[in-house]
Amino acid sequence: MSRDKSNSRDYAILAVIALVVAVGYFVLRTPPMVPTAEGHRPQRQQQVPHSDMAGTSGSLQFPQDYESLVAMGNRYMDQQEYTIAAESYRRALALNDDTDVRVDFGTCLHGMGLSGRALEEFRKVLEARPDHAIANFNIAVVSYATGQADSSRVYAKRYLTLEPDGRAAPTARELLEILDSES
Question: What is the distance between the alpha carbons of residues 24 and 12, in angstroms, rounded to a whole number?
């Protein structure tokens, strides 16, 4: 083989390697797609500038007191930044096991695509307060999203029994109509 052909082949190999490295860089730096709680349309997960949810290192500073942690969780949940909100709520729950905060924590978990974990949190709430209307409603929604129609029906009806005129009542009735039409 001539020297020119060998050099051309070497350059082609280097170009392919550079292309693979460049594509790999852009693929790996793009955040993964996660479902949202509303409509389950994919949404890019927000990159969190700290090492992990349980860690304390990194540039994101979490407050130390319960009220500030809950407020931070609420703020990030409203922005649909579920990872940060969930970590804020998790830390708040370590200080004070409040059922409403646990419901918000479960909602974030569902927003992160962790529906099984969300159901666990909602069930913990119902163990402490079986009459917690929003926990019942959230179990209905998450159960429906995970294909558990019977469970969804039971909890939607429970919610309507507890809060027939509640904020989520129209959605609960709509869910029951959908479940009835699917059966």
Answer: 18
What range defines the domain where residue 88 resides?
A: 33-182
Q: Which CATH number covers residue 40?
A: 1.25.40.10
Do 41 and 82 fall into the same domain?
Answer: yes
Overall pTM surpassing 0.85 (yes/no): no
Q: What is the total count of domains within the chain?
A: 2
One-letter identity of residue 123: R
DSSP string, the chain: --HHHHHHHHHHHHHHHHHHHHHHHHHHHSPPEEE-TTTT-EEEPPPPSBS-SS---BSPPPPSSHHHHHHHHHHHHHTT-HHHHHHHHHHHHHH---HHHHHHHHHHHHHTT-HHHHHHHHHHHHHH-TT-HHHHHHHHHHHHHTT-HHHHHHHHHHHHHH-TTSTTHHHHHHHHHHHHHH-
Q: List Cα–Cα distances, 26 to 15, 19, 22, 46, in angstroms.
A: 17, 11, 6, 16
Q: Which of 49, 109, 45, 40 is nearest to 73 (CA)?
A: 109
Residues 23-72 have pLDDT tens digits of 444 444 434 333 333 333 333 333 333 334 444 335 789 999 999 999 99
Contact between 82 and 112 under an 8 Å Cβ cutoff? The reply is yes
